[in-house]
């Protein structure tokens, strides 16, 4: 299942998760103003920030983090990809999203599924983008 696919029957805060995945900032702001939780989780423990990161919605990531979302919060519930948002950005192979999350304070040494760090996840990528992402993570890791 792609993170952008959300089931209205089973997800906790479907509206905010959908807004995050699609990049709909106006709807996200309206939902938060009406009381939706910034840290609401779906059935797999993913927050709207996870969906924004997985779908490369840079403006949504900036909005959620500036609003107080936990940039290193880990998904917990699917047992398959219990990553922080950075792990989802690596899986989607978006250099820009990884760079933004790192600039906003994401921890490249944060552990996720089976104890793998973001660096471990990136090492599994063999494409050119994956190698660039790995270098960004390693640079940030040694700088902190």
Account of the protein in words:
- With about 140 residues, the protein is mainly α.
- It has a single domain (about 15-144), classed as Ankyrin repeat-containing domain (Serine Threonine Protein Phosphatase 5, Tetratricopeptide repeat, Alpha Horseshoe).
- It has 8 helices and no strands.
- The longest helix is centred in the last third of the chain and has 16 residues, at about 130-144.
- Keywords: ANK repeat, Repeat.
- It holds the Pfam family Ank_2.
Any descriptors?
globular; ANK repeat; mainly alpha; repeat; disordered N terminus; 144 residues; Ankyrin repeat domain-containing protein
Describe what is shown at a glance.
It contains eight helices and no strands. It is globular and about 40 Å long.
**Uncertain stretches of 5 or more adjacent residues:** 1-12
Average of the residue pLDDT scores: 85
CATH superfamily: Ankyrin repeat-containing domain
Specify the structural class.
mainly alpha
CATH architecture: Alpha Horseshoe
Distance N to C terminus: 34 Å
Overall, the morphology is: globular
Helical content (DSSP H or I, runs of 4+): 40-55%
Sheet having the most strands? none
Q: What is the CATH class designation?
A: Mainly Alpha
User: How many strand units?
Assistant: 0
Beta fraction of the residues?
under 5%
Q: What integer value in Å does the Rg equal?
A: 14 Å
Count of separate DSSP helical elements: 8
Question: How do the SSEs run, as a string of H and E?
Answer: HHHHHHHH
Number of domains: 1
């Amino acid at each position: 299942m792609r993170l952008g696919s959300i089931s209205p029957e089973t997800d906790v805060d479907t509206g905010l998760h959908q807004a995050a995945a699609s990049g709909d900032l106006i709807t996200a702001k309206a939902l938060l103003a009406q009381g939706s939780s910034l840290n609401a989780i779906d059935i797999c423990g993913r927050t709207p920030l996870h969906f924004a990161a997985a779908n490369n919605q840079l403006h949504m990531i900036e909005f959620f983090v500036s609003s107080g979302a936990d940039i290193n919060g880990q998904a917990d519930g699917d047992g398959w990809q219990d990553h922080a948002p950075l792990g989802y950005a690596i899986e989607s192979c978006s250099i820009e999203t990884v760079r933004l999350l790192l600039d906003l304070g994401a921890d490249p040494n944060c552990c996720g599924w089976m104890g793998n760090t973001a660096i471990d996840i990136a090492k599994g990528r063999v494409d050119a983008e994956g190698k660039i992402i790995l270098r960004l993570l390693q640079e940030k890791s040694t700088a902190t």
